[in-house]
Amino acid sequence: MTMHHLHGRPVIIGGGIAGLMTALHLAPEPVVLISKTSLGGETSSALAQGGIAASLGGDDCPDRHLADTLAAGDGLCDEKSVRRIVEAAPQAIAHLERLGVRFDQAPDGTLLLGLEAAHSRRRIVHAGGDATGRELIRALVAVVRRTPSITILEGVEVRRLLVEDDEIAGVLAVGNGDATTLSTGRVVLATGGIGGLFDHTTNPLGSFGQGLALAARAGAELADLEFVQFHPTALDGPRRPMPLVSEAVRGEGAILVDERGRRFLADTHGGELAPRDVVARAVWRQFSAGHRVFLDARRCLGPRFAERFPAITLLCREAGIDPAMEPIPVRPAVHYHMGGVAVDAEGRSALRGLWACGEVARTGLHGANRLASNSLIEAVTSAAFVAASVAAASPGTQGRLKPAIVPPRPDASRIRPIASRALCIERDGETLREAARTLAPIAAGRDAASDPALVALMITIAALRREESRGSHFRIDFPRRDVRSRSLRLPMDETLEAAAILSDPVPDPVALLDRRASP
Predict the structure, then answer these.
(1) How confident is the model at residue 16 (pLDDT cuts 50, 70, 90)?
(2) Burial, 98: exposed, middle or buried (Cβ in 10 Å; 0-12, 13-18, 19+)?
(3) Is the N end or the C end of the chain the one with fewer CB atoms within 10 Å?
(4) Going from the N-terminus, what domains does the chain have, and what CATH number goes with each?
(5) What does residue 490 show for φ and ψ, rounded to 5 degrees?
(6) Is 276 designated active site?
(7) Catalytic, out of 121, 160, 217, 276
(8) Is the alpha carbon torsion for 68, 71, 76, 78 positive or negative?
(9) Where does the Fumarate reductase/succinate dehydrogenase flavoprotein-like C-terminal domain start and stop, copy by copy (predicted)?
């Protein structure tokens, strides 16, 4: 695979909405967009059923969207970052429409606005009822493919970021079995989330946090890794990734019941539309007590279910379920990662020449618990901020790159049972410590499980350090919220230490906990 003619161009890693939008915002500057599958394929973006949050209604405004986001984030949002994104959201929707995205409209031509959990107003814009992500991918891929300044490399996987003199120097990539290096001083990570580390997930199984592994091994700073959001209502069955039963179904009035038909959230503030962490824990506890859980939409939607949610209807029917006539079996599943590469307002990481956008980035928007439908709007708006920063940055000095060892293709299958047990909805110190000791030697190795193990290890260490329960992170041995706690960061030196695990024999990684992260 020869890429010499592409040297010096900004490189965007990831073919989902964040990567596509960043490439489009950089036009007409020549850029390289690298996707390990076809553009939009096997991305969480394409699977997104929920919509995009933006204050478009006559009874709404960015300040209300801000307040709802801060409340859901449970004290760990960056208010300046939140304000910048929610204020940019309405214009971002208009921009997507100009790019060809077909949002759902009312008969009078205005955008239909839905309600989802913890939103105080109807502000969720959908496309195709419950196929928003698929419609965004369709429209954006079409525009990207006809944009001459974007060079698309599909079926190519970046295995390492190359660093010289503490700044990005290039990428090491593999495609069609051949390895090559591409010299560049500007790299944007848009690689998605970590759901592929878990047995029960709505994410593609290949989304195991490769961007976090790339960043950590390069020396970037990571933050808030312990905050993993479980969606309360994935379709309970053998299919992987697990089909999502969108929160919008509960927004239309569907209720959660056990196998006896008992509504177990009846006395919970907000009921089925309480914050996701509250609903997910309630469902998890039903499973832990030996019950099954169902989402019952028969009374609120009944025969209208197929019209309102055509994609979910098809998924249910493929599983032998008619949601108009019977409750839908559901269970919690890993859905979104609030933590990621620590970036500033422009998407810049602490490592010169490296930016991050979308789910792989920690912008400060989500805090400890993402507000529903804020993820897509973060990817769309942040892409513009990142692109402007990349365009204004120096391309760096282009030189001959040093030879690099090509790591094997990552495989998370060995790590899923470990992460699923230790990093579940309700965590405890003993199980986390056991997982850290198991993961450390795997992360220190050089086999297919090493990168997934590294990501799981870093999340585990962060979960051990947070000795409280807050947002999506719940410790049964520390069930109370600590009002003094702040975001936990892994500075460069600690990230490198966790990434390399020092030496062989491997020291106890839990010793890292003796140095508490500073606020």
Answers:
(1) very high
(2) exposed
(3) C
(4) 234-333 (3.90.700.10)
(5) -105, 100
(6) yes
(7) 276
(8) positive
(9) 455-482
